[in-house]
Amino acid sequence: MSARELGLPERLTRHDDLPPEVTIWEVGPRDGLQNEADTVPVDVKLEFLDRLANAGLTTLEATSFVHPKWVPQLADAEELLSRLDRRAGVRYPVLVPNARGLDRAVDAGIVDVAVFASATESFARRNLNSTYGDQFAMFEPVVARARDEGMAVRGYLSMCFGDPWEGVVDPDRVVAAGRRLLDAGCWQLSLGDTVGVATPGQVDRLVDAFAAAGVGVDALAVHFHDTYGQALSNTLAALRRGVSTVDSSAGGLGGCPYAESATGNLATEDLVWMLDGLGVQHGADLDALVITSTWMAEQLGRPSPSRVVSALAG
Ligand code: HMG
Ligand code: MG
């Protein structure tokens, strides 16, 4: 008999230290597909987005308006968005690094964008061809203009815990960088563990450091990659601190082409299994997600790294 037929996971009454509801910020179509060796055909991406919306997810990070030579896997952003059936009640944020990216997002009729900074010098240079300081000069006018256009702008911050070139990242440095994005006008800051090295104690410490600087959990989201198997533990630590937006990718796809040691994001299915057990609402249909990720794994020609997908699909 399957785990689901046996009524698993057992759904406990939510403990008071957890948020009643979590927003799942699904990054599979963007973070999940930006690192594929072979570019995924646009028809497959469209079906992926459709299936994710059918599975009840309401925030689907669709693609990026970055330089097509830097991320050829997402060079089809215009075609994808022109053909996408944008559902009522679903948000389709996209990444924009600079003024040119924002122009492209405006032309595509996008209302949710995200800029993405680095807490470290090394990754700013590699990912953005910029210094740590200059990245803010690039983003600040983009955020201001996007807001003038009526867009909501999220701020990502990468390398919030450890960096493959610089080692452990000082929380004060992360808070200073995060404040720059929030002060520029980002409504939310997503704290990225780009290479998946963080552990839960670091998550507690960083959320505390933001609180000490006057940034509450309402302004924070978490974005864990699962390289060292810590993503779900780190997520639970963040939930216990009151963070209620969690980035994840269906099937655990993901990685960053400019940080080779990055592997997939926290799998949406693994997150949903845990939230179900904890009695935290999320609005997603786990069975539909597992079917979607099994289908996507067939398209990509390799099994999903998600433990929950492999357990339930088997
Ligand atoms: P650059 O080469 O320094 O750009 O790249 P530039 O400003 O010097 O411009 C050079 C040419 O590119 C110009 O064309 C521009 O128009 C064009 P020319 O005048 O020579 O013909 N150009 C563009 N074309 C289309 N769209 C654009 C664009 N920008 C310039 N947006 C740049 C600088 C920032 C553009 C580049 O470094 C870039 O695209 N980087 C993006 C890298 C990326 O996407 N990384 C993955 C996403 S971040 C991530 O995954 C982390 C995250 O998941 C959180 C976490 O896990 O930590 C978010
Ligand atoms: Mg990422």
TrEMBL record:
Protein's UniProt keywords contain Acyltransferase: no
Pfam families per record: HMGL-like
Keywords: Lyase, Metal-binding
Domain Pyruvate carboxyltransferase: 22-290
Keyword Cell division among UniProt keywords: no
PROSITE patterns, A to Z: PYR_CT
SUPFAM superfamilies named in the record: Aldolase
Molecular function GO terms recorded: lyase activity
InterPro entries in UniProt: Aldolase_TIM (IPR013785), HMGL (IPR043594), PYR_CT (IPR000891)
Origin: domain of life: Bacteria
NCBIfam families noted in UniProt: PRK05692.1 (NF004283)
Family affiliation: Belongs to the HMG-CoA lyase family.
UniProt name for this protein: Hydroxymethylglutaryl-CoA lyase
